[in-house]
Design goal:
16% of the residues lie in helices and 25% in strands. The protein is an alpha+beta fold. The strands form 13 sheets. Strands 25-26-27 form a 3-stranded antiparallel sheet.
Length: 444
Amino acid sequence: MYYTTDDCILCMKCIEECPTKAIIKTKKKSFNCVTCGKCAEVCPSKAIFKNQYGGYVVDMELCTGCGICKKNCPFGFIEIIDNKSHGECSMCGVCQQICPSNAKRDVTGILEYNVKEKTFEDIERVPSPEKKGEVMKTSIFIDREKCTNCGKCRMVCPSKAMILDAPEGVCTDCKHCEEICPTKAITLPNVSDKRCINCYKCVRECPVNAISMEDGKITINTGENEAHIRYCVNCNNCVDSCNYEALIRKGIRIRYLSDVCTDCNLCLMVCPYDMRRKINDLYLGHCILCGRCVKTCPENAISIKRVKWTGDVNEGCVNCGLCMELCPRQCIYVDKDGFSADLERCDLCGVCSMVCPMDAITFEPYDVLYITDGSVEYNPNLCVHCKLCISQCPTDAISDDMVWDIEKCIFCGACDNICPGHAVKVKTYMDDLVVDGRTKEVRK
């Protein structure tokens, strides 16, 4: 709930601007709804629910205007207007934002109102342990500006920690055929008929099956290269999931002990980049930081780096919540109050920086996923008219009368994530990923 301090100057701006009419005037200061939840408890149609901010919202479609909530409100905040309930605080924070004397204070988790005892009580707070201020690790990095996605690196990786997603039958210019040709007959994209002895070694060993025999000649399909390399980023997801210590850390490297592996497949399920797979009865796909890919890359696009993060974001963050939705460790929380990360759980897998549409995560991403499409659903029966979505939208795609300009909208979901009334649902498409709305958990 919001508490009004003695700094209140009784200007009444908060009362005028409160979208749910949840503030009243007393002799000394304004007084906010105490979010005790009695209204939700007694509502016969279950039209009142608690949101992720600790506030309460009325589903106007379900509300019958019976007035039971009004009769049970301990401070008389609730009024029935046009046969609908008003006066419940959604914890949208508008009052705090517009208060000229900074008299509004969010005391959620600090102070609560006891309906039975009719008293305000301090919430006993357990001292939180000292949190880690930084997380770091060593990993392979690929410079996407330099990388041509030829796939040469994956051919030399001893632990199969690189995968080339490529259309079958299209040359990626890895030049493996040039290197293995015994007569040096191949200079991509050409094959010398005079030198070629039709040994078929290039046909047999082409990693993308782009070489074939046509009309008695070796032919190389050199269409547009649409390949994309992905790789193990040396996070701890697979290590932490293994209950039998078949995957362990030795310094900066991950080691696999096949003799204690139980084939439980958990490591395959938790890998954020789908690198883990079983090959010849061995579970591979973890980077051992041997550096062979670094030496092999013809474009000098690969390096081994030490990366660290203090859990912060830059001013570009719009609280869209994509990082929160896709974080495999569930160590990120984003709401109207901002971004926070639990570094005790973070392993720098990089998914958050990879999906951030605003480049707000302050460590270098291993890859980038772009928003390709999306949709917006708006339910006016749940809207509390706080207009937080309008102020939060990075592209000014929402009008004052709550209409989305789809031409401007980038489907980042900032409006969905911040909405205290759960009135907005944004579906976001990112390549082959779909985020269908934002998580609206009740904060404990």
